[in-house]
Design a protein that fits this description.
With 159 residues, the chain is of the alpha+beta class. The protein contains five helices and eight strands, in the order H-E-E-E-E-H-E-E-H-H-E-E-H. The chain is globular, with a radius of gyration of 16 Å. 21% of the residues are buried.
């Protein structure tokens, strides 16, 4: 991946706070939900309840699609990200606390007090590892997308 595209992806990840996550239900129907996220490089994390539909869906199939974007009145100003990723449950308690107590309050300062005393027994944290990222930028032309396949070298370079 070239450095300009990497920079664009990281900038979009930093600018935004929510994503739309599509998982697969056991009956085969996709389910899209909105979640907050934090990121380091090209790796993203989100939290949910242990017993949510998202958690159950991901236990059955960890493939997800997600989008990160914003509303605009100018269709030619549309920018955002679309990703095919794998979701992995975070089981290391130190990592969970790092995400909840260190990372989340940086992006969501209004959550700091809530996160510091949170009982993590009912919380599930998932790590999202993108495999394909599409960068949407309509300023380059209607429906313009640059697509990149992510490998471990790209993940390390973006960290």
């Amino acid at each position: 991946m070239d450095s300009k595209l990497r920079s664009t992806i990281l900038d979009l990840l930093d600018k935004h706070r929510i994503l739309t996550l599509a998982t697969l239900r056991a009956d085969g129907w996709p389910q899209a939900t909105t979640v907050g996220y934090v990121s380091r490089g090209l790796t993203l994390w989100f939290i949910t309840g242990r017993d949510t539909q998202k958690s159950r869906n991901l236990a059955g199939d960890n493939r997800v699609s997600l989008t990160i974007d914003h509303d605009t009145t100018d269709p030619m100003a549309i920018t955002g990200l679309s990703m095919a990723a794998r979701a992995f449950p975070v089981t290391d308690e130190a990592m969970i606390r790092d995400i909840l107590v260190s990372e989340l309050p940086k992006k969501y300062p209004e959550y700091a007090s809530m996160m510091s005393g949170l009982d993590i027994s009912g919380v599930a944290v998932f790590e999202l590892r993108p495999e394909v990222i599409s960068v949407l930028d309509y300023s380059k032309g209607f429906a313009h997308t640059d697509e990149v396949t992510i490998d471990d070298t790209d993940r390390r370079a973006a960290a």
